[in-house]
Write a structure and sequence with these properties.
Layout (H helix, E strand, L loop, with lengths): L2 E4 L16 E7 L4 E3 L5 E4 L11 E10 L8 E9 L14 E7 L7 E6 L11 E6 L7 E5 L5 E6 L10 E10 L13 E11 L6 E2 L3 E7 L7 E4 L2 E2 L8 E5 L9 E3 L5 E4 L10 E10 L6 E11 L7 E2 L5 E4 L7 E8 L10 E5 L9 E5 L4 E6 L11 E10 L6 E13 L5 E3 L13 H34 L5 H7 L16 H4 L1 H6 L26 H14 L9 H4 L36 H7 L12
Parallel strand pairs: 7-13, 15-22, 24-30
Antiparallel strand pairs: 1-4, 2-5, 3-4, 5-6, 8-11, 9-12, 10-11, 12-13, 14-17, 16-20, 18-21, 19-20, 21-22, 23-25, 25-28, 26-29, 27-28, 29-30, 30-31
């Protein structure tokens, strides 16, 4: 009687004329599953609890027929396809009550070790199943999840298995619908239960160490070969095999220790130094003799214990100072000590003066008994003039066995302080300065001295430069007279053109050896020669100058006073003076000038035959 749908047929006849337009509905095909109301055309279910899992689709043939007319009733038909929709009305069911699984003991944690399946005849989400392990024997070692594609229960391993410990596990698994329909709660529980039995298969396994990690201790400087500990591994398989041990060599640190292959005892192989390395960390590998490929590894940590071998020392270098106006009993420095050894808990250091310093009335050491000490004054004032530095020997001892001690020298500098004890100066130079002269005033005085020295140096440099420029531009210079002399002289008797005394005084030439009528390519240093005596003939001096200029390759062949100012006796060119010249130039024969070399070429061209001389070619 459940409503399915309503069909409706129309008749084109006049509804007011008899029963020609009155329609009656009936089912020609589809019974006994459905029924139809002949007047309204409402289709309803005819059987209770129609099961979609038995038949999902139905085809119903409906007839609509009018009630009368001369033709005796006309009918029309239509087909209705009805599909049953699924509801969650069936619980899941296991096909069998017990599932047997065999699992190797070497299976990894988290791996799937088996599958079971419950069947639900529903479809879609109504067939989704949720699996759970019922708490009980062995359930804590396993877990189960649902494969969303196959709706199978996947059993996974939560903890490792060990055949030697337990060979079988039994637990129950419950399968239930994930989506329940409250309309069918009265049908019964929508879940099912099955038993799972797991048998653990024995596998050959590597040796097992008795501990997950080994920690050992050894004193530094322990003799080589001393046994410091041992590791133990066993083969737990049936018919156990012997075990061999060896160190997993990874670096040079592992060479400090050795291990007995059969016993697993670890011994020192070298002398250990805690100050160099305080801890060693390496691995030991155990393998089965029957199957060396089956190995296991364990970590070993060896702590090196300290031996009191270093004496304590002052922890940092102190810069200690004392005021000249210090009072007795004043603490001028607090010192601490440090030890290169690994100091144990409660390590104490004691401080005292050395025996030779305890008799001096300058300073003393006050041990505070908390690993610190104070340096106290014993005098009423100190004088830098008498002694600037004091060297205080302090003996420091530790409390370990054997007792180690050292003598440390503390340097104390005497400084000038104000009345409040603030240090003003500790420099040695400050001792000899006037009492009223401050550091700022001293700096100002030094700065003024530097400025005065700079001014003096600049003044001297300017005077030298001015003097040099004056000498270069002097009109009394001999070569300047020759260069600027552009008027024909009156002969040898004309003594007004230039100072002939310069030729008679060789010292004037010696003072100025650099040629001023040309610009030299490179600076040539003056030639040093002994000065000519006043009573020597001037011709020797001129010849000497002429020879110097002839052999100098850097000097051009300029006509200069040094070269042609004097001709001596026996000259090849004879006299060039106008006094001894012939009356006319035509009487002279200048052909010999061509034999004098390239320096007289221009002169030979000028005084040679007139037809061969071209003034335009003269440069």
């Amino acid at each position: 009687g459940a409503y399915v749908l309503q069909v409706k047929a129309t008749d084109a006849d006049d509804p007011t004329y008899g029963n020609s337009a009155r329609v009656v509905y009936s089912i020609l095909q589809g019974q006994p599953y459905f029924s139809i109301d002949p007047k309204t055309g409402i289709i309803r279910t005819a059987l209770p609890n129609m099961d979609r899992e038995v038949k999902e689709q139905y085809q119903v043939l409906i007839q609509a027929k009018d009630m009368g007319g001369q033709l005796g009733g006309l009918a029309g038909t239509t087909t209705v396809n009805i599909t049953l929709t699924d509801v969650n009305d069936n619980p899941p069911r296991f096909p069998k009550s017990i599932f047997h699984l065999k699992v190797p003991e070497s299976s990894h944690v988290g791996s799937a070790i088996g599958r079971i399946r419950a069947v639900d005849p529903d479809f879609g989400k109504n067939a989704e199943i949720d699996y759970n392990i019922v708490p009980g024997d062995g359930g804590n070692l396993f877990d189960i999840t649902t494969d969303e594609y196959t709706q199978e229960g996947v059993i996974k391993l939560k903890k490792p298995l060990d055949f030697e410990t337990k060979k079988a596990y039994t637990f129950k698994v419950e399968a239930s619908n994930l989506h329940l329909d409250h309309r069918f709660h009265s049908v019964g529980p929508f879940k099912d239960t099955a038993t799972v039995k797991i048998n653990v298969l024995d596998m050959e396994e590597p040796p097992v160490f008795s501990k997950t990690m080994y920690t050992m201790e050894v004193y530094e400087d322990t003799p080589v070969g001393t046994i410091i500990g041992a590791v133990t591994a066993q083969d737990l398989d049936a018919g156990s095999s012997s075990v061999r041990y060896f160190i997993d060599w990874k670096n040079d640190v592992d060479s400090y220790f050795t291990i007995d292959a059969a016993e697993g005892t670890i011994a020192t192989n070298e002398l250990l130094d805690r100050e160099s390395t305080a801890q060693y960390n390496f691995s030991i590998i155990a393998s089965k003799v029957s199957n060396p490929l089956l190995t296991s590894k364990v970590n070993v940590i060896i702590n090196v214990l300290d031996v009191n071998e270093f004496p304590p020392e002052i922890s940092v270098p102190y810069e200690t100072s004392v005021c000249e106006n210090a009072k007795p009993g004043q603490v001028i420095q607090t010192i601490t000590a440090a030890d290169k050894d690994l100091s144990p808990a409660g390590q104490r250091f004691s401080f005292k003066l050395s025996s030779e310093a305890s008799n001096k009335p300058n300073f003393t050491v006050h041990d505070y008994r908390n690993n610190t000490a104070g340096i106290e004054t014993r005098r009423n004032g100190y004088s830098r003039r008498q002694q600037e530095l004091y060297f205080l020997p302090i003996v420091i001892e530790d409390s370990s066995y054997p007792v180690q001690s050292s003598t440390n020298t503390l340097t104390i500098r005497v400084c000038r302080c104000d009345s409040d004890g603030t240090i003003q100066s500790c420099n040695v130079e400050a001792i000899f300065l006037p009492v009223g002269l401050s550091t700022g005033a001293l700096i100002a005085i030094l700065l003024c001295i530097v400025i005065l020295l700079v001014i003096v140096v600049l003044y001297v440099a300017l005077r030298r430069q001015k003097k040099k420029d004056t000498l270069m531009t002097s009109k009394e210079d001999i070569r300047d007279n020759v260069i600027h002399y552009d008027d024909e002289g009156g002969g040898e008797e004309d003594t007004q053109a230039f100072d002939i005394g310069a030729l008679r005084n060789p010292k004037v030439i010696e003072d100025n050896k650099i040629r001023r009528d040309i610009k030299p390519d490179t600076l040539r240093f003056p030639r040093h020669r002994p000065p000519a005596e006043d009573n020597r003939d001037i011709r020797d001096f001129i010849n000497q100058r002429l020879q110097e200029n002839d052999i100098d390759p850097s000097a051009p062949p300029y006509d200069s006073l040094a070269t042609y100012a004097y001709e001596g006796n026996g000259s090849v060119a004879e006299s060039l003076s106008s006094i001894d010249s012939l009356t006319t130039e035509t009487d002279q024969d200048y052909d010999y000038l061509s034999d004098w070399g390239p320096r007289f070429k221009i002169l030979a061209d000028m005084f040679g035959e007139e037809e061969s001389y071209n003034p335009d070619k003269v440069t």
